Amino acid sequence: MEFIRSFEQLTKKDISLAGGKGANLGELVRAGFPVPPGFVVTTAAYDRFVVDNSLGRIISAVLQEEKSSGTEIRDAFQSAPIPLEIEQAILKAYRKFGQRSVAVRSSATAEDLPGAAFAGQQDTFLNVIGEEALLDAVRRCWASLWTDRAVTYRRRRGIDQRAVKLAIVIQHMVPADVAGVMFTANPVTGARDEIVIDANPGLGEAVVSGLVTPDHFVMRKQWLSWRIIERHHGKREVLIRPRTEGGTERVSFGSKGALQPALPDPALRQLARLGLAIQQHFGNPQDIEWVWSGGKFFIVQSRPITALPEPVPKMSKIQSMVAGLLAEMFAVRPYPLDATTWLPALSDAATSIFGLLGVSAPPFDQMFVKKDDVIVQLKHRIEFHLTSGIFLAPVHLLRIILHYNPVHWKEDPLLNDISLRIRDLEARELQTLSWKELLATMNESQEIFVDVGELRRRYYPRMGFAVGLLRLFLGLLGRSDHFSVLMSGVENKTVEANHALEALAAWIRANPSLSDIFSKHDADKLWKALEAQPSGRMFLVELKSFLDRYGHRESVLSTALEPTWKDAPEIMLGILKGLASTEARSQNGRPAWEIERDKILMHPLLRISFLRNSFIEILDEARCFLQLREDTHFYATLALPVIRRTLLEFGRRLVGIGVIGTPEDVFHFQLNEIEQLEMAWPPTPQLTSDLQSAVVRRKEQRKALEGMPLVDPRSFRQTEAAGDNLLRGTPGSPGIAEGTVRIILDASEFGKLCSGDVLVAPYTNPSWTPLFQRAVAVVVDTGGSGSHAAIVAREYGIPAVMGTVDGTRRLKDGERIRVDGFHGLVHSQT
Q1: Where does 338-403 show beta strands of DSSP type E?
Q2: Span 133-147, pLDDT tens digits
Q3: Topology of 713-828 in CATH?
Q4: Is the pTM of this model over 0.70?
Q5: What are the PEP-utilising enzyme mobile domain coordinates in residue numbering (predicted)?
């Protein structure tokens, strides 16, 4: 049997004999790449070792009992002797090799494959010196096939434990000046024209094991060379180096050269060229471990990149902006019931304007990739199509522009009709309604969205026209950069609600009894504590009045399962607890937009009466744009509490007959399944079983998608931060502010924000904006310059950076940062 093979005797077809690592190294050597010399102890030696020591019986006994631990097998391997024939073969190759310092690496037959890297699952021993140490390292490598982590990994991947074997790579230890890893495609974005390099002085183990923050480079292929598009200097926490007597040691790097990059730029480009050549040889993107020694590069490992995402399609700035806004809207994955009830109605309302333009928007369910009726992810491209209506679009637009003046949009009878119908829906006793009447209530609630869409369809065209004329006017006057200021300071329902909340907070601060109650109780205990005091009961009367007016505001837009303010008043009490702890920022003086308007009116051209009046009229109409957008959102979501309660009433009745376990489980149904039950109540045993199975499947599918964003962040990610920038995003509101990071993940944490903090959030919507009265700046994972957060931040005059993608993960509570809303940057202040 062949117990030993040199690298030159191996190709990528020899995985069963040399394992993934050994086969790939043989392939690299035969192709002429710079690989340190070495040989492989083959799987035939592993088989012989197992047979001679009767280890197969131990393996079978342990695996038959389905134990989660392989410790018993590992211990048996470590205490078993290596057969003499194998020992002699290893030592003969080692002596021929020159008895140098070597690296001993495990090479399993199921590793380094496109679908499973097995990175770090088996052991590696560096700077092994001497025959006794080498044989011990070989035995320990074989035993590492049966560590707890390796056994668990294979079980989770569904790999047959008995079929896996282990070869061992023994390779000359190169005295590394610098070492690290290289990916020949970007493992985060999937970009195939980028190479990612991590580097650190000393042995590469420091980088591979995650002991250091390495130098990080992203390089993009140019016509003749590679351009470095990102560079982050590492922290040099530790250096791993070989010891004279064998093995390695960790030492402090020290200050010498700590500010210098581990590799100069020419070396980085040389390494990138080498990586591309290796990728071309294997035919797929590679994860490569490399060593830089004496001015030369050596490759010590190459394997396919596993779980490499598909590259995101090239997107225009407008498409990226839309993706960012959708990421904000769909911060939580909608349930099947959301996706078949109120969200399609909301989508139709938002896209109704496209019909006027002769463009058809895709139906809601065609915007997403689905699996087993569960929404997986938003499609990278949302297709809009021209219709025959495009030929008459100019006529229709002109008619609407002439007929509907946005200055008077609040006087539209449709708005009053919406309010009356909502009051009727709110007054219904859902528990007394039949199944058919509940469905009718659902349908009537959805019609609210249709009417809100009609309001936008009527008034958006003239407002859009006015916005365009205002930009043109300002350009002619040489004041183009003043557009944002002129559009700010518009009153809307969101700002109105924030003012009302601030008035309640001021009441708390001014009343010692209320102030004492709020300071002593958590948000979920406050309602009961307030009911126990006369001043508290008076306060609750005002709070209930507030909730009657504004309590339909959603915490999350993408699912009706999340409670609104009036469904969970503890959310509001938590906000008030935070607001009452400090005074609001002073808003003295005239609004900035008025000051700017008056300056512009001094322009010589605007002394002409006709031009002056035209400018004022256009400005008034354009300033309605953001107000209409915010307020129609406010009116559209008036129906949300009714929808939520109606859906949960369906769930309550299904719980009553044992179809589901909790009312909330109804959100795993689709609307057609709810409708089906109207004709089959109570459901037959077969129908009950089918529905229960569907709920279980969808729950499992939803759980499997946890951690996967609904909107691919690569579609709106800006260029990565560089230099001393912690984050880069989209400028949302101008200004620069410094403060302490306060990460708020959801409404339950609103009370954590203190005056002077920087609000860092995964998403925001109108229900978050009361926090802006205390925050000095806002940093958000999602959204863009047109997001609610950006709009309200501009109203409050605080900087905002949107679409940072992972700001809530990369920043830490208590960290001091500087937020640059002009350029969309976040800097460290430590």
Answers
A1: 359-360, 368-371, 374-378, 385-386
A2: 999 999 999 998 888
A3: Glucose Oxidase; domain 1 (3.50.30)
A4: no
A5: 755-824
